[in-house]
Specification:
heterotrimer; A alpha+beta; B alpha/beta; C alpha+beta; B: alpha/beta; Rossmann fold; six-stranded mixed beta sheet; four-stranded antiparallel beta sheet; 10 strands; C: 2 domains; two-stranded antiparallel sheet; 16 helices; 14 strands
Chain lengths: ~400, ~230, ~400
Amino acid sequence: MIFTIAWRNVWRHRVRSLVIMTSVALGVWAGLTLNSLYIGMGNERLKIAIENEVSHIQLHHPDYAREFTQAPVMNNIQTALNQIETVEGVKAVCARTMAMGMLATATGSAGVQITGIQPPNESRVTQLQTKIKEGTFFTASKPNSLLIGAKLAKKFKIKPRSKVILTFQDASNELISAAFWVEGIYQTYNTALDEVMVYVNQPDLNKLLNLTDQAHEIAVLLQSDDFTASGKNKIATLFPDVKVQTWKEISPDTELIIATMTQASMVFVIIILLAISFGIINTMLMAILERTREIGVLMSLGMNKLKLFTMILTETLLLVLVGCPVGVFIAWLLITYLSENGLDMSVFAGESMGDFGFSNIIYPDLLPAQYVQIIMLVLITALISSVFPAVRALSLKPVEAIRA
Amino acid sequence: MSIVIETQNLSKVYNPDTIPVYAVNQVNLKIQRGEFTALVGPSGSGKTTLLNLIGGLDKPSSGKVIINGTDITQLRPNKLIDFRLHNIGFVFQSFNLIPVLTARENVEFIMLLQNVPAAERNKRVETLLQHVGLGDKMNARPAQLSGGQQQRVAVARALASKPQFILADEPTANLDSAAAANLLDIMAALNREENMTFIFSTHDQRVIDRALRVITLVDGKVESDIRR
Amino acid sequence: MLFTLAWRNLWRNRSRTLITTASVFFAVVLAIFTMSIQKGVWGNFIRNVVSFYSGYAQVHAHGYWDEQVLDQSFAYSDSLNRVIVAQEGISATAPRIESFALISGDSITKGARIIGIDPQTEDLVTGLRAKLKTGAYLQATDEAVLIAEGLADKLQTNVNDTIVLLGQGYHGSTAAGKYVVKGILKFASPDLNDAFVYMPLTAAQSFFTAPDMLTSLVLLFDNAERMNSITPQLQTTLGQSYEVMTWQEMMPDIKELVRTKEGGTYVIIAILYLLVSFGIFGTLLMMTAERRYEFGMLMAIGMKRAKLAVVVLIESVLVTLLGCLLGVAVSIPLIYYFNVNPITFTGDLAEMYYNFGFEPILPTVFSPTVITEQTIIVTCIALLLAFYPLYHVMNLNEVEAMKK
């Protein structure tokens, strides 16, 4: 019967109930949608980081972190690549030779990282070929071809077929300068990297560095992240003298960017919850004021405090329990739609996303656990905010309440 | 005959520190089982306050209210609520039914609070509502009933808890003559047939005429107490 | 008379007044707090980014920023400096000459960014002295360098070692020189930490064979918030051969990022406004329900609808003003507290912020503008919603209302 009274009280002031339900639904919807957007951005960053930048696993010389241009990861690279390809879950492998140096043109110079790549392998691992904006991707067997990032190209007004001078040290620390011709201009999602990375053919760079069948880095792309741990172990067994690292070890900030996103969306969710709960508390307090007399009657008839408390609590919770699923359902529809069709952020953000290694199309995503987390938070908020009005109802004195 | 209600030196003072106003002043009353008592007096004479004190809705400034041997002024708040639930039936001037519940549910509600089993509840609700002549209105909400009908539901609700007595504060004040007469018939019949004790405050001469005992209050004091 | 009635109504029913006031109060506090923390976080971000290197604004030779080469430098003289410092709002300038060069330790060579500075004024812009890890800070007449820690590690160089710089000087001349390492600097940003070399301005100018030339002049302001009104004036004063650029113009990607995030802030705050509106509306709705009888009675005894409406409106205005005043009164110490003791987070996320050179804090901005703006907006919302009781009174049927 207490439930019946609470339930009917919900429908007594339909507009009021609608207002509370709508605000709960709106809050839940906004919280879930924004969270999914943040998570979508995080996933996108992760995907780009793995598929276009660091890959799942990288192999280096043990001294790599301190001084990577000097020590080749291993000899007999071609054999090693063939061996790695047989490891379970491996999708593609490529080797890179690297040098830090300076790029000079007629107008100026800039510090660059020169990467000597095996074009077909590189493309399978990082999709570099698809990032060509102007010119071509190592098509001809022209010697000393070079790919340059769009941002750097713009800075020095470099066009395809422009000549640039690269200066760097070889294995015996001798300074080497060589002329290269720009074959293509590429643009990835990470413009910060585009500004410092130039790509050349590995044989060209190896020849200049006096390296033979050697490279500084091997990158391994897997079928999925599920193979990362096992893949790392197997490769480490194959090459015990080499440093084998996963993307998490190479690029720890990728994981932390996602953590920042989660933090930011939690701050937002808390603000929303506060706004909802203040709304509920005020509205319900006023509703109790309106019903003072009725509550007085219930008390004089012999309804004890616990039952009265339960009644008001139930009414508030019912309001939330109707609003909450509505919000979840709308958010679920929207997120499901957007997770398939994507949301073009450039509408809101211009092209700035690319400057921070994000793609412009975001695929919002929310795991069931995250739905549950937000719904739990909403319910806890609802419970806390319904306690206030219920306590207020208890403080009424029957004789004064009836007189009201 | 046994005494159901006894008040000893019962007083209620407002503003005791500044200008003391005695709403109820040293009232000593004994009400016996089966009495049909009218509490009369001009406005502000303390009728409603006295009823509230007897009903345990208000705390006296001094004195005792003893119901069936229990001094209810000494009960803790939650005990008092429970005591009211099992011993006292209320009928209010403005009906005060629970608007979201039907006539049947309003009556049943009290028994639910008392944890009466469903079968007994259903039987009793029907008996009571038929008794007050509303057998055909059981599923109507208060808003769909006339004032007289609502007050009859209130009487049925007051009876539902099998109380020691029923307190009614100006029960006919908001009713027309026909409805008032009808209500009084029902109350008088209950008094006669079931020996139910009634105390009601009233201004209404028709009610006073039918009372078996008339207590007159003036300025919070008992001025006269006449049994007929 | 009507005002007196409204005033007494408020005092007579204090619970009601308190609840309605609270709904406005919470709205004001939430709006001010949310906006203050959003602005604070991004203000902090900009301050961090700007103090990394660029400063709030710079003067260059016209065209330098698009093509950052030595040949785009300009002649620096005391008279030029006097003209700039005479500009109202500009307190000082920090001269710089910078370009790329190769830097060699004993055996290893790297690309580096060479920045010639005035040691005293540079400290004002970037707090360079505080970044010194070992060794001593530069004097204006030194023939020595400060090297960033990451770069020093790679070169395996330490304080008092000698390094060799080799690069391109002014108008294609060869720049070469030997310098003592006077100190090691630690920068939070890896970009700076792996590449920056500082030397005194005169030493740098002679290294690049560019006596009295500068590539940039960093401006210091009395109040950076007024920057955007000062720079256009300076541009006019200096004429077409110079370019005066703010950080927004120099780092459009950061500006875009801030703009995007501020866009996000407006979405969040819009949702917040919507939610607090629901809260206030719910409260007003229950208030009118509670007062139905009272309204009906007043009309029954002959009060004209319009007059009653005026009374209700006066009450609403008073309650809104009271709620806003209380809200502001509570918000000021609240945001001041969080301005002085910002919310600090810990763990992995804090670590990442340190790695990027940011303090892991969420400070609030203590800005009268934010307080005023948010208060005005919430006041407008509350007053707009106050039309509901007005509408209710104008459409009330007094006979119906009198029924209890």
